[in-house]
Fold this protein.
Amino acid sequence: MSSCKILYVCQEITPYLAENDMSTLCRTLSQSMQERGITKYTLHKEYHFSKSLIHRLQNNEGVSMNTINTLCNILDCKIEDIATHYKD
């Protein structure tokens, strides 16, 4: 009789971020990157994102539309896959 072992790994982002408009952006971007196997290190080394830009993305600070466009091209996704717009 052979035994079969299954390793199940689950990472849940939601409990670690407070629910607000900006956390939704960060969570959506993080999930899109994870699904496509893109890391912060990859953004820095292969796509020449500065460490300060990666820091701004992580901390929900302002980034340009050019940055959003570049991320969409890297992740092969639409804007709504990595960002959500909320009216003022």
Helices lie at 21-36, 40-45, 51-58, 65-75, 79-82. Residues 21-36 form the longest helix (16 residues).
